[in-house]
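Format notes (please read before filing issues)

Several people have asked whether sequences and structure tokens are stored in separate files. They are not. Every record keeps both together, in the order shown below: the sequence lines, then the token lines. Line labels are part of the format and must not be stripped during preprocessing.
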Amino acid sequence: MVTGSYFPDVNGAILQCSQMIEQLSRKNNISFKILTSPLKNSKAPEHFDNNTYRISNFSSLKFSLFSLFKITQLFLAHRFSIVHFHGFSKKVFPIAAIAKLFGCKLVIKLSSFGVDDLETICERGIAYRAIIRLFDAHIAPSPAFLIPESRMRIFGLKALPILIPNGVNLGRFAPLEVREREEQRILLGIEPGSFVILGVGHFSTDKRLADIVEATLICSKRFTSLVVVLVGSREESHFEVSQEQLEKFRQYDTDTSLPIDIIYIQDAPSIEKLYQISNVYILSSSREGMPNSLIEAMGTGLPVISTILPNITDWIIEDGKNGLLYPIGQTDLLSEQITKLIEKPCLASTLGSAARVKVSAAYSIDGIASRYLDLYERIL
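Then the structure lines:
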């Protein structure tokens, strides 16, 4: 499994990879190794554990040559059958080429529509089309990534994308009893009776977390005790973090008259606890592939509100039945959806219950892992 980052870093992609590895290793006796990038600002060893190798660093010629040497050693030491890439980046080129030299089958799970879907990759040029043609399977996490055979022929691709969504561990992401929820809230310093709104994602332009605050401020004209909990990196050095977003939040932080509370959480290894103590989860993104946080929240039985992303969020959410949708950036409409859930607790409960039923039926990690197993067996 080749992924951009891995534990002790935590994000949706890492959680998805680790869940898949755990399921297939434990139940099907598949042996995985993880090839990932070195930790930033750290002298971490190549091995984080016996199965994790931190040697894919191509930031300079010196590091590239060293990485190619170490990766070749890794392939010599292990008889890999499949190399499974989680997302597309430039490091795919050398690693996929080495893997093919060793006779491996190649699988790529596309991750972000508009960035690494097949059309976007192929339109970057001949080299990109050549490398993507080496792959034996392309995984589409949502229907947005599917393309017609006519486009496949234009790009010279033989393997049609296979629709396999992300999965959720329903044992971990499950509702809490009211008493347990209040106990968890106290640990976070949240006042009893507060209405808690959760957002998850780095403070980037695409995630639009400031929209959640703006909509909540509109709601604060009618309601009190509103708390916004935001989980994600605010570090300026992080490549996804936007200065524009940070400036908006600096303004919120310095406004002593702000009528709502904002709680920032940089890292949340036990993120299920935050879903469990919240009243609503909001996905405010303008771009996604298949949002892990959305299906995790739904699996927890939490009512969700999401932006409309064609063939992504509107494929997961049936508006008004297992969640609510609103147009990107329309904070006034988002505030109306939040208001519905505050005023109608029965609606919130119904949406949350229906959300968990949907995730149990379509996105259970057990079922998703079985589909990957079928794929691995088929391409071998």
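For reference, the curators noted about this record: Residues 338 and 344 are 10 Å apart (CA to CA). The chain has a mean pLDDT of 91.
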